[in-house]
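Field log, afternoon session.

UNIT: design team B
ACTIVITY: writing a sequence onto a fixed backbone
BACKBONE:
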């Protein structure tokens, strides 16, 4: 009998991260963003916004809305949204990250850039996120990338057939710096 593929294991050696670049999202990118949000591969894991909400996030200074560019031609492969960029508490939320071409390493690479932007450029003290409990892929990625489990918002979101819980995860500045000292993060 053939063995089933092993689930993602955080102790296995990781692939080399892909090369990505983040650039500010423009109005002309919003069709791409909205299409990605409504892709059935992504919908179970996010709560899509309408165009006006994305337009606000592009303009509002407390938000950063980025297109993830990757691949040989650095085409748009996803997007990411940060909130709290002007927070007096220096607490930034990774609101959403969606990658179109999955399992190419773009998600991990983009997350690493997000951490650099948050801690190096935006002087975050805390970078946090919530993720649906059923989103095992994203949870595994965040855990591998050094996010600590903070708690569970039990049955916080409606999903088909019932409710799902939200897992809250975070990284503090000193944890990012400790990881950097271990070369787990790019040099500053
Ligand atoms: C979560 C998401 C951004 C990850 O992006 P990605 O580019 O596919 O991820 P990567 O290729 O960088 O993979 C990172 C790690 O995640 C894990 N992973 C990714 N896809 C996986 C899968 N299908 N099964 C198991 N583990 C998986 C692996 O550990 C992988 O590392 P490895 O390939 O070195 O083993 C992407 O799957 C996505 O857009 N999902 C839908 C939206 C979403 O859930 N966003 C996050 C919540 S806001």
């Amino acid at each position: 009998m053939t063995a089933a593929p092993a689930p993602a294991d955080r102790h296995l050696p990781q692939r080399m991260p892909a090369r990505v670049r983040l650039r500010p999202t423009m109005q002309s990118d919003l069709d791409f963003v909205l299409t990605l949000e409504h892709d059935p591969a992504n919908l179970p894991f996010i709560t899509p916004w309408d165009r006006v909400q994305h337009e606000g996030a592009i303009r509002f200074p407390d938000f950063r809305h980025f297109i993830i560019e990757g691949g040989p031609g650095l085409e748009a492969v996803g997007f990411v949204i940060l909130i709290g960029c002007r927070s007096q508490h220096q607490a930034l939320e990774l609101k959403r990250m969606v990658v179109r071409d999955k399992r190419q390493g773009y998600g991990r690479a983009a997350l690493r850039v997000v951490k650099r932007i948050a801690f190096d450029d935006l002087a975050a003290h805390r970078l946090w996120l919530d993720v649906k409990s059923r989103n095992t892929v994203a949870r595994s990625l965040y855990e591998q990338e050094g996010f600590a489990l903070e708690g569970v918002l039990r049955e916080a979101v409606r999903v088909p057939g019932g409710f799902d819980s939200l897992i809250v995860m975070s990284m503090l500045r000193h944890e990012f710096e400790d990881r950097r000292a271990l070369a787990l993060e790019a040099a500053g």
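LOG NOTE: The two ends are 49 Å apart (CA to CA).
NEXT ACTIVITY: expression trials, pending approval
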